[in-house]
Amino acid sequence: MIAPTEIHVVGVCSATEADWDAAWKRCPHATFFHSRAWAEAWQEVSGGRLRPEPRLVTFSDKKRAVICMSVRRSLGGLIRHGFSSAAGTYGGWLSGDDLGPVHAQLLSDLLLRRYARLDWRRNPFDGAAARAGVAAVDGDGTQAIQLAGDFDAGFRRWSKGHRAAVRQAQREGVTVAVAETEEDWRAYFAIYEKTLERWGDDATSRYGWELFDALRRRGEFVRLWLARTDAEPIAGALCLYAPYTVSYWHGAALAEWRQVRPAHLLMYEAIRDACERGLTWFDFNPSGGHEGVMAFKKSFGCLDLKSPLLRKRPRWKQWASRLKKKASSES
């Protein structure tokens, strides 16, 4: 038996597609953001500028892990910027083995040594990663429901207002179903574009149709839930699935229909479906600092989970940023 202090890395090499897929399917804390499908969707949307670069790590105790990475190269490949999952989503590693804090620390050290430029949001569902002792640039977090299979018991923990909103939407004749056609997806994207117009400069992200289309073609682990009235889509929730978790990643609604509370009914159906599937977590994802959005999510009986962001830059870049801030404060 190898003592924890004797564990060390014995091999690092490129992970194959089969390595990545197998680790993702077996890993209890995997999210869709750790999947090959997510990385390849962003490779497609970026025109190949962001490329998957997964690494297979073998330890002295025979355990293995796949580090999920994508890399953007610039200046003819001289500068490599590592993203441990695209678009600021959860990164890190996958393993079907029971990894502990020592493994997590070794994997963290590998990430930090390999990339001078690195963006890495810690996976809130990986307890070992939380104990790796890696400093982060913010204390961001997410809200998630720990599912126990009994949807009705979980529904009773929702706030009174949220439960009433579900019943109101049902009385108003709102229905919810999973999008089945490209036309359904385009209808949702039109709703999203109107939402962006309403948000204006307050929008923290903007995605083109190409990303939604790339996700639409990724199969069973991507589901767009649509709320309809009189057969017309009025709101939607894009949920991304992994073997044990589901992430509510994107949502939009028509302003003129908000009073019938379609967003609440969307969550009701999506969470009930997750319970029926036997999933472990329903994750609402970080809220981009929007307090109103966070309050909406917490009223579903969520737990607050830490998901800090680590952003590493070359030393000269750090000094330049500090000097710029100092000059700005003195002007």
Q: What would you say the CATH architecture of the largest domain is? A: 3-Layer(aba) Sandwich
Enumerate how many helices there are, as a single number: 11
CATH superfamily of the largest domain: Gcn5-related N-acetyltransferase (GNAT)
Count of the domains: 2
Residue share in helix: 25-40%
Instruction: Write down the overall mean pLDDT.
Output: 91
Short descriptors:
single chain; 331 residues; Aminopeptidase; 2 domains; seven-stranded mixed sheet; five-stranded mixed sheet; 26% strand
Characterise the protein shown here.
This protein is of the alpha+beta class and 331 residues long. The chain folds into 2 domains: 4-139 and 307-330, Gcn5-related N-acetyltransferase (GNAT) (Aminopeptidase, 3-Layer(aba) Sandwich); 143-306, Aminopeptidase (3-Layer(aba) Sandwich), CATH 3.40.630. It has helices at residues 17-26, 36-45, 101-114, 127-130, 151-155, 160-171, 182-199, 209-216, 262-277, 291-298, 315-330; strands at 9-14, 50-52, 55-59, 64-68, 70-74, 79-83, 92-94, 117-121, 141-146, 175-178, 222-229, 232-241, 245-253, 281-283, 303-306, 309-312. A 7-stranded mixed β-sheet has the order 10-11-12-13-14-9-15, with helices on both faces. It has a 5-stranded mixed β-sheet with strand order 2-5-6-8-16. Strands 1-3-4-7 form a 4-stranded antiparallel β-sheet. Helix 7 packs antiparallel against helix 8. The radius of gyration is 21 Å and the shape is globular. The model has no long low-confidence stretch (mean pLDDT 91).
